[in-house]
Amino acid sequence: MRQPSFFIPHGGGPCFFMEDPAGIWTGMAAFLRDLPTSLPKRPGAVLVVSGHWETEGFAFTGAERPSLLYDYYNFPPHTYELRYDAPGAPALAARAAGLLRDAGFVATVDPERGLDHGVFIPLKVALPDAAIPVVEMSVDRALDPAQHVAAGQALAALRDEGVLILGSGMSFHNMRGYGDPRFTAPSEAFDAWLDAAVSRPGPERAAALSNWEGAPAARIAHPKAEHLLPLMVAAGAADGPGTRVYHENVLKTAISGFRFD
């Protein structure tokens, strides 16, 4: 059975594993926790595109047992002891890099790099048994949206091979805006545009997402595009319209997640 692809929010740092008396992250955690129940079958592997890894061209983690990168700062000590001991998938990394190279992209496998928090934090919620092999994919630091849509198109065949493709980022990512009510309306305007763009068929969606900077409040929502580009890869890996499967105001900003079949 063909696996879907998703764009998921990964929250803020290790947010799901800290005290949260206000329930800020409760809804997002519930969405991630329920995600596996919506799959046609248990994936054979997970390929996660993280907005926290930028490289020249694209890169994939190739370790047999990837380490973790605690790339968040000033959080409680216990959050630097979190474990997610999922196996890697060097063969999948090589296969994915080969698909991109065949499509004309620069793509490499990094046998040393570990999984950053854009990968292991949401997976620790969604797939807590850490039994499914995981490969992380970078974004190209040129931050060209059309290039990332095309990369997703090149990787689409993996979905028929039992691979779940997850784009891990945030649909709104402006650190100054979180918790500030002045950013609520701009975030909602961008979110409404994003939902409409994602729901279009593949070619129309690709054109819209490739020109996302023309969306309302685009550069307010994303001063830099690295947390949006995983969406481009997930969307590129599917032809049919996408569906918004998560939507919530978090820290006074609109946040969404999307599924592509």
Gist?
This protein has 261 residues and is α/β, with parallel strands linked by helices.
Verbal overview:
The chain is of the alpha/beta class. It has eight helices and eight strands, in the order βαββαβαβαβααααββ. The protein has helices at residues 26-34, 90-102, 117-126, 145-155, 184-198, 202-210, 218-221, 229-236; strands spanning 5-9, 45-55, 58-61, 107-110, 134-140, 163-169, 242-250, 253-260. The strands form two sheets. It has a six-stranded mixed β-sheet with strand order 5-2-6-1-8-7, sandwiched between helices. A two-stranded parallel ribbon has the order 3-4. Helix 2 links the parallel strand 3 and strand 4 (107-110). The longest helix is centred in the C-terminal third of the chain and has 15 residues, at 184-198. The chain is globular, with a radius of gyration of 17 Å. It starts with a strand and ends with a strand. The model has no long low-confidence stretch (mean pLDDT 98).
Core attributes:
globular, 8 helices, alpha/beta, six-stranded mixed β-sheet, 261 residues
Detail the topology: elements first, then pairings.
Blueprint: E1 5-9, H1 26-34, E2 45-55, E3 58-61, H2 90-102, E4 107-110, H3 117-126, E5 134-140, H4 145-155, E6 163-169, H5 184-198, H6 202-210, H7 218-221, H8 229-236, E7 242-250, E8 253-260
Parallel strand pairs: 1-6, 2-5, 2-6, 3-4
Antiparallel strand pairs: 1-8, 7-8
